[in-house]
Design a protein that fits this description.
This protein has 15 helices and 25 strands. By secondary structure, the chain is of the alpha/beta class. The protein has 2 domains: 272 residues, Aldehyde Dehydrogenase, Chain A, domain 1 (3-Layer(aba) Sandwich); 194 residues, 3-Layer(aba) Sandwich (Aldehyde Dehydrogenase, Chain A, domain 2), CATH 3.40.309.10. A 7-stranded mixed sheet has the order 15-18-19-14-13-21-22, with helices on both faces. A 6-stranded mixed sheet has the order 10-9-8-11-12-24, sandwiched between helices. Strands 1-5-4 form a 3-stranded mixed sheet, covered by helices on one side. It is globular. Bound molecules: nicotinamide-adenine-dinucleotide.
Length: 480
């Protein structure tokens, strides 16, 4: 059975404890590889390697750093099919999704930040003949990056690429649930000629190796994507140490459908935004609010389309949905479907575990589930489920739609469907959400900000915001 390794000081190494944990293929429900069960001792080695590499990496010209990161991007592109297969096997997502979204976006993240540093500028403030100020943005040192399982390489690269491009050295931890492509990235970094110790990748559990990264006094920055509860725990450790923190956390995203929308496009895109990646994208719309005059028409068309979503083994070309990521997660999602029934919800479609045939019989599959008849403030409509479950609720006025949309503790992403220009912008303005899509979903321009308000996070990733987060800004003032 394949044993993956930590990547420390440019070498692939076993954990110091010699202990490993099992890694499960969710499409078959069976162990297929093992990953290091790393701990604080491995973190210490990684930090020492990163500290040693920092003076070399940070002193390189931006062009030299850019070339190495572009090489990483190029190698991801060359190995795209191989990486997509690994991602799909590790996560349970359809191979087509990994091939067309996850891996290309990881490749593009490296290319974007590799070239962004060549074009970055810093402010200069002239004091009108009395002197001037300029801003230096300097790399910070050793930074920690911790990522989740839903878009494994994509979100891992979203942190690592700007951190490295800005001149820092990195100690990173992918989710223990989906470690494979981060391991393959280690091999790519070796091939790309990245100097030893610049990037270190440790595998293992959150409370041990993750916690040790957050607690380490020489790690000055923590960039974290994951659940809101974990983020809260991290902040409690990191804040008193005055670490710089970026937290990308949970969501419960509203999808507002007004009667004057482009109906067919709204239905089609809403099915995708509800169930892409088995509903396991932090940006998926999990609460659909529909103006009452088109509620029945929308509901019928939506459910009809959901019925045609094929759930199946990730490698089948016609599978639109694969397996959810783990047995625990499947049970959590099924538990929420039971809760929805207890809260008075009616299941319009789905609502159960699905069983495939042959080698996939023990995989973790759930049918796409549509629920109506729930109050906007019940637990099903307030708590993050993070699976293929969407609720649908009518509204009468724009004010009511906004009130229900804004009623949760979260504020990550929202979608608005209307052909009324004024309403589109007014609603976007009034939504408590870090990202608003008008008549589209998941359209990304890598220059734009990304992140949530309220309990969905602290800070923003994306574009120069991410690059600058990984620097310390210094104002230099000269008076004549
Ligand atoms: P999680 O919080 O359980 O784990 C995320 C990462 O944190 C993992 O690598 C885990 O090992 C690590 N971790 C756990 N405990 C830790 C600790 N005490 N110290 C340090 N690290 C620790 O989240 P998950 O289940 O992997 O991912 C799903 C969650 O991520 C959902 O809530 C989803 O909304 C969120 N998410 C948010 C975004 C965003 O951009 N806002 C993107 C993707 C996923």
């Amino acid at each position: 059975m394949k044993k993956i390794q930590n990547y420390i000081n440019g070498q692939l190494v076993a954990p110091l404890s010699g202990k490993y944990i099992n890694n499960v293929d969710p499409s078959r429900g069976e162990v297929y590889s093992q990953i290091p069960n790393s701990d604080a001792a491995d973190v210490q080695q990684a930090v020492a390697a990163a500290q040693k590499a920092f003076p070399i990496w940070s002193a390189m010209s931006t062009k030299e750093r850019s070339d190495i990161l572009l090489k990483v991007s190029q190698l991801i592109d060359e190995k795209l099919d191989f990486l997509a297969q690994a991602e799909s096997l590790d996560n349970g997502k359809p191979l087509s999704l990994a091939t067309h979204v996850d891996i290309p976006r990881a490749r593009d993240n490296f290319a974007f930040f590799a070239t962004a540093i060549l074009h970055d500028e810093a402010p200069f403030h002239d004091m009108g003949g009395k002197g001037f100020n300029y801003t230096l943005r300097q790399p910070i040192g050793v930074v920690g990056c911790i990522s989740p399982w839903n878009l494994p390489l994509y979100l891992f690269s979203w942190k690592i690429a700007p951190a490295l491009a800005a001149g820092n050295c990195v100690v990173a931890k992918p989710s223990e649930v989906t470690p494979m492509t981060a391991y393959l990235l280690s091999e790519i970094c070796q091939e790309a000629g990245m100097p030893a110790g610049v990037l270190n990748i440790l595998h293992g559990l959150g409370p041990s190796v993750g916690q040790a990264i957050v607690e380490h006094p020489q790690i000055k920055v923590i960039s974290f994507t994951g659940g809101t509860k974990t983020g809260e725990h991290l902040a409690r450790t990191a804040a008193p140490m005055f670490k710089k923190l970026s937290l990308e956390l949970g969501g419960k995203n509203p999808n507002l459908i007004f009667a004057d929308c482009d109906f067919d496009k709204a239905v089609k895109t809403s099915v995708t935004s509800s169930f892409a990646n088995q509903g396991q994208i932090c940006l998926c719309g999990s609460r659909i609010f529909v103006e009452r005059s088109i509620y029945d028409k929308f509901k019928t068309a939506f459910v009809e389309r959901v019925k045609s979503l094929k759930v199946g083994p990730p490698t089948n070309a016609d599978s639109r949905m694969g397996a959810v990521v783990s047995k625990d997660h499947m049970e959590k999602v099924l538990g929420y479907i039971e809760l929805a029934k207890q809260e008075g919800g009616t299941i319009l479609h789905g609502g159960e575990r699905l069983y495939m045939e042959g080698e996939y019989a023990n995989g973790f599959y759930i049918s796409p589930t549509v629920i109506e008849g729930l109050s906007y403030d019940c637990r099903t409509n307030q708590e993050e489920i993070f699976g293929p479950v969407v609720t649908i609720t009518p509204f009468d006025t724009e004010e009511e739609a906004l009130m229900m949309a804004n009623s949760t503790q979260y504020g990550l992403a929202a979608t608005v469907w209307t052909e009324n220009l004024n309403r589109a912008h007014r609603v976007a303005n009034n939504l408590e959400s870090g990202i608003v899509w008008i008549n589209c979903w998941l359209v990304r321009d890598l220059r734009t900000l990304f992140g949530g308000m309220k309990n969905s996070g602290v800070g923003r990733e994306g574009g120069y915001e991410a690059l600058h987060f990984f620097t310390e800004a210094k104002n230099v003032c000269l008076s004549y």
